[in-house]
Every structure is written in structure tokens, then in C-alpha cells.
Amino acid sequence: MTDDKQVIIRISNNVPGVPESSQNRLFDPFFTTKPVGIGTGLHLSISYKIVVEKHGGQLQPISAVGKVTEFIIKTPTLLNC
User: Fold this and answer.
1) Rounded to an integer, what distance in angstroms lies between the CA atom of residue 57 and that of residue 76?
2) CB-based contacts of 27: which residues, under 8 Å, 6+ apart?
């Protein structure tokens, strides 16, 4: 938890990165990095709706081809610690 009462969660995986040309579409419904007809999408649009639209938070991808992909989730908390 940060001093300004926000929670930060960092999630990373071992996928070899997303090309920069595709990063601005990661949160589009049904977006996939696979060829047409293969896969149903990354489903990150659902995560975006929950974190950003419902909770007023931020969801930031950090990715480069050949590197680990990481998502940083920053969301306000209602706790008065």
C-alpha cells in the first residue's frame, strides 16, 4: 500500500513480450496476437473494465519483445489504515 492509500499489484509472466505495435490494442475485446481464427482473445478488456472503469484504478502493461511482460495494477483502497 502506498502513502496515498493506493494498492499496487505487479503481475509478470514468462511470455516473450508483446510487440510495441500491438500494445495499444491489448485491452480491446477479442484482441489476440495469434493468427485469425486461432484463439479467442486475451480477455484483458474484462480486467480493464474492472480495474479502471469500476474501481478508478490504472492498468499499465510493460512489455518488449524478448522480455518478460508485466502488468502494474494501481487501485484506490477504501481502507482507512
Assistant:
1) 6
2) 44, 45, 47, 48, 59
The rounded distance, in Å, linking the Cα atoms of 14 and 17 is 8
Q: Return the pLDDT at 70.
A: 92
Cβ neighbour number for residue 16 with a 10 Å cutoff: 12
Beta strands, E only, the chain: 6-12, 58-62, 70-76
Q: Which residues of 43-72 are buried (b: 16+ CB within 10 A; e: fewer)?
A: ebeebbeebeeebebebeeebeeeeebebe
pTM across the whole model: 0.76
